[in-house]
Amino acid sequence: MDSLTAAVYLPPLDNPHERAAIGHELAAVLHDLVALSLTGKQLHWMAAGPLSHSLHLQLDELVDSWRAMADTVAERAVTIGHTVDGQPAAVAAGTGLTPIAPDEVQDNLLVHEVTHRVATVAERVRARLRRVGEVDLVSQDVLIGVTRELEKQQWQLRVQSGAHR
């Protein structure tokens, strides 16, 4: 008799009973990345100060990156058989990122706000990739890629802000 995994054409996992748990971990990362992209776009519109133009352009690049990572994470969750919800209500309920006020943000404060949020999401993803790796190395690889990119962005923002440590 074929296994359920083979019958529905889902990728086999080291522990198929953990499929839902992995899906929930991936969904949490998805929510953080979507929230990060929405916050980044808000900051993009509200940037003020001498560096506002360059930050406006940089935020576009970061938002595109976060959206691409969110897409990769969501596609992995669906691939393993987990339904994801990236709609506003689900994202708001599923992320711990604090919203920003819809006011003008001075360039130096904007860099700090973005750096803090990127670091927060990177730390959360890093914690999840350890748990996911115990069950599914392919999903862990997706999260490693997300962590790698977020930590690179964090470094670039940190250098830009003058906080080199």
UniProtKB/TrEMBL annotation:
Ranges for domain Ferritin/DPS: 26-158
SUPFAM superfamilies: Ferritin-like (SSF47240)
CDD domains, sorted: DPS
Gene3D superfamilies xref list: 1.20.1260.10
Domain of life: Bacteria
Family from the record: Belongs to the Dps family.
PANTHER family in alphabetical order: DNA PROTECTION DURING STARVATION PROTEIN 1 (PTHR42932:SF2), GENERAL STRESS PROTEIN 20U (PTHR42932)
Full protein name: DNA starvation/stationary phase protection protein
Biological source species: Pseudonocardia zijingensis
